[in-house]
Design goal:
Layout: H1 2-20, H2 25-32, H3 36-43, H4 50-60, H5 64-69
């Protein structure tokens, strides 16, 4: 079980970068209302806080199942 969790956690930074797209980390952070340093840390492997994940899901219309587990579609309907 721990291996499966770690495997998914290692994929989270690339999913975050995919959501960010061509925007700079600074612009992405501004769009989400968070600090750029947090975006940088999360894209470099630090586990994001729940508040950040919820904010990201709501503002970017991203499925938390996709973001955290890679299941389903990236965008919520």
């Amino acid at each position: 079980m721990a291996q499966a969790v770690n495997r998914q956690k290692r994929k989270l930074p690339e999913r975050l970068a995919q959501i960010r797209g061509n925007r700079s980390q600074r612009q992405f952070a501004r769009d989400l209302g968070v600090f750029q340093q947090n975006v940088n840390r999360y894209e470099n492997g630090t586990t994001p806080h729940t508040d950040f994940l919820i904010q990201l899901s709501l503002k970017e219309n991203v499925s938390l199942d996709w973001l955290l587990l890679g299941k389903g579609r990236m965008r919520r309907r």
